[in-house]
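Researcher: Go.
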Amino acid sequence: MTQPAPDTPATPALAISGLAKTYASGVVALHAVDLTVARGEIFALLGPNGAGKTTLINAVCGIVTPSGGSAHALGHDTRTDYRSARRLIGLVPQELHTDAFETVLATVSFSRKLFGRSRDDAFIEKLLRDLTLWDKRDAKIMELSGGMKRRVMIAKALSHEPELLFLDEPTAGVDVDLRRDMWEMVRGLRERGVTIVLTTHYIEEAEEMADRVGVIAKGRLIIVEETRTLMKKLGRKTLTLNLAQPLGAIPEALANWNLALAGDGHELVYEFDTQAEATGVPSLLRAMSDLDIGFKDLNTKQSSLEDIFVDLVHESAAEKHP
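Model: Structure:
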């Protein structure tokens, strides 16, 4: 990959090429990952525990030294031009790391100075108010609840006004109010041009907020796709027919549709590919009519991103271990 030119509108917010990480123990955490994230995009990275999500973020942010490949933040090499790159990056890590004896205001203000930003009391106040921390500004970190400590971590990450923000499991284990505030904050940041890369176990967050989704498993980026396109391309629908009379078994004449019985024989379930040329639904209904199998009601359900995610991880595992 050609090195992106810094500070031009066409420069991607994040450009990763062949990024790999093998630990001294021999464990391969990342297998030559390639990824480009555009400016102003919200990109969600999904994967099970141990998939490599945090390692990827840490390699970009300079916390982990990659074994190979490169990463550029708005055109700045994160290794050879570390200071410039890191000044543009904000990171909210999974683990809570703050000075327990400092006050909220002091620790957030210090983080801003750490990145060479000039003092801006008005900005810090607005930031703390947006995160419902202003009333706690004089409280020591050790006195705060877990949710409030998480808010402080977010404030620290945003204190120097980064252009690229990494959120590593930002709402894991937090209350509903903070999760809602986080979603609103992320949308507001995107409106101001901030690029956001988040990892999450909450599939609904990716489905609700992300422009694109990447699925990573065992250090390999399986797929990167626009969220809606991924749903459309890989999503499946389930048709459930509520039968007028229960069936004890599926008739031989319906064997071609790969049906399943549910609800003690009162429901006939058919899963079909929404992208197939022929879904098989019209022919199924005709075949049921020919067999005098009536139904009182029917409903369809679209596969969620979680369903797709689980399928992709299982398919990847099957390919690696046939």
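Model: The mean pLDDT is 86.
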